[in-house]
Amino acid sequence: MDTNFWHERWAKSEIGFHLNDVNPYLIEHFAALKPKANAAVFVPLCGKSKDLIWLAEHTEKVIGIELSKKAVEDFFKENKLTPSITQGERFSTYRYENLTIFCGDLFELTANDVAAYQLVYDRASLIAFPADMRARYVEKLNELLPNKTQRLLVTVDYPQHEMSGPPFSVTPDEVQQHFSARYEIQCLASEDILEQSKRFKAKGVSRMLEHVFLLTEK
Length: 218
Ligand SMILES: C[S@@+](CC[C@H](N)C(=O)[O-])C[C@H]1O[C@@H](n2cnc3c(N)ncnc32)[C@H](O)[C@@H]1O
Prior knowledge:
alpha/beta; Rossmann fold; binds S-adenosylmethionine
């Protein structure tokens, strides 16, 4: 899967992952991170998610990174916000009050870009990548983030042979494999979402769970 895959999804508005409202898991479980008053949250692969708005209202600073210029521009347009925009070598940077979105490739980020961020919100980001890229993504985030980070991670888990992703299936065992060396892992919720996932059911998926994990650095 290369970056063109995502540019095409956005160009054709094939963005079934996008929710028109804030993700209910974020509202319900964000407090489990026990965010400090000056919490700063990093949102990798943020799309045009409304979750950015909610996080900006509930934390001191939010930074997202998103490949698609269309996604970033739609985000500001649809939320009636006018950002300042700076063109850099690696990214175009969109800023509005306490929210910053880098438009560019996550793999181009350096630790300096996100060093001040202790919390990570990952909804539909790890599961956006096939297995080999997931390993690379986990490694990249480990390299970027300083010690003592916490993450809220939302995954989907279904028989992978029944559908080609994205979203890709990430089982609780795989979450352990990626993160147990560095994080205490707690599953906060597991929900059967098959009935509400009509487009996946239509593709022949027989079982689909969504899991919410709290990862706390050891
Ligand atoms: C499944 S969507 C999830 C978006 C968002 N987290 C949400 O909940 O709506 C994955 C997003 O990651 C973006 N993306 C994919 N690869 C990327 C990369 N290497 N760097 C930055 N963004 C990327 C895609 O354009 C897409 O918007």
